[in-house]
Amino acid sequence: MTPTDWHITGDLTDFLTRAGEFLRSRPALHTVHLTVTEALRGRGLRVYGDGDPVFGLLERGGEVRGAFFRTPPGRLMLTPLGGGEAGGLAAQLTARGDELPGVMAELETAAEFAEEWGRRTDLDCRLYARQRLYRLGELTPQRPSPPGRPRVATADDREQLMRWYVEFTEAIGESGPSQDPGEWADARIAYGGITFWETPDGTPVSMAGITPKVAGQVRVAPVYTPAEFRGRGYAGAVTAEVSVMARAANAEEVLLFTNLANATSNALYQRLGYRPVEDFAGYDFWAGASVR
């Protein structure tokens, strides 16, 4: 494979024109690419940061075989690729002089890209997370439900949503929110994208979100319960509620990601009826001693 097999652009319209059908052909595996590009299209190219996004697609014989995006300062997000294809992209990006903080992709794709990137840049590649993508089968809500009820968040909840969004990003080990917390809260409120579980006295104790439907798929994200409220069934109850909402919106696929290091959440989602689809890995790139 030659590095020039990859077409790289900053033009979102051009990217979606050429790669949109490919992304929609496997909506589960491409869920992040679908939802992020939809957000960029609807809310502006800098919704995730001040840098200009970059998009790319691998095309041969008129057929798209892979795609990526990056919204600085975030990591490169790759679709699953065949052998040698991720390495070819790493070669092309280093030849361009691109600098990357990391990559997230299906396990083998991520490992191949990270190895080639490290070889070409002399940077160390640290595995920071392994994630599992789940698809909802038959929803089995937990019984009995914890005391309380679900409630869709409104503009009156904006400050709490902002605070919990920041806490959530810290809880999953990110260095900071990928979006401005106020803008994130406003966007979710606008389409009813966050649901609380609240106790009988009206205190919110957990939240779960759903992304807008794109290509028939909806992803549950984020799910967050403050530490003091964990272990009481609130996360399971609110996740089941937003799963019902997604199905009611005629989503053909309801998806979610988990951190494989969190055995509790993986067991919870499987009890609710979520079934494994694919495993993903994320690597960060560092100068200095390796901490693999």
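The above is record 1. Record 2 follows with the same two-line structure.
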Amino acid sequence: MEFNTVTLALFLAGGLRLCVPVLLAALGETVSERAGVFTIGLEGLMLFGASASALGLALTGSPVLALGAGMLGGLLAALMLALGTVLARANQIVMGIGFNLFAIGATSLIRQLWLSGAPAAGSMRSVSMLKLPGLSDLPVVGRALFSQSPVFYLAVVIAIALWCLLRFTRAGLLLRAVGENALAADAAGHSVLRIRFSATLFTGLMAGLGGAYLCIVASGGTFVDNMTAGRGYLAIAITIFARWMPLRVLIVAIVLGLLEALQFQGQYLGVDIAPSLLMAMPFVVALIAWIMMGKAGAAPGDLGRPFLRNSGR
């Protein structure tokens, strides 16, 4: 296949589609980490969202309701995680890793009990393609940017909204204050536990939607064991690499999506790199992000630290 504008458009469109699950999860992680909660269990939240969406699709036959079921699954899973890390003040890293292992087993059991005989899925066009009138007819960018899933456009809107919230609103200021210095925020009369609990639930909603997108849109409604395949950890790395800024998260997620798309279409673009090496590139970025986190002053001041003062909040 000779390189041309159609090939370029397909590559760009594929990269944008591939970035959506990690973008949504990373936006949720940005909120919880800004509040001081290191949600290592993001991988498990995505898995619960994916399995809940597959179950919702099997019960209702509606891909839209299935996405809603995925968000609900992520929310309920985040509720369990928040009870342990925020209220019970468990070690966030240890509990997050344990939660991910639990999610792999629990979602596999859900598949065996309720999804093994699920009927074939119908049309997914309502959630997989939305052509913006006029814009979708533009050369290259029309097919790449303006013929995407509605969930992609929603993710972009959420990224912009979170940037505005964190930068310009009192709620965003409180969220950042709790993450930077929880004791000072508590002394000022703000409920640290309530803010952190709410931030973790929001992370569950976003991770659940990301997992639902992966199952319903990217995989045609089919759930397989451990289908997130490390995307939750990658989303955490994106959050760190982007310095906890939503618009940077959007940009980094798109870049990693394009890197992933090179695995499938790189040969048509003249990229002479082994697909196995391209497959490892996003995780190389993840390693760089973890190293960057070690720099003094890079992360929110109280990130990963439980709020231990017995203030009744």
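The radius of gyration is 20 Å.
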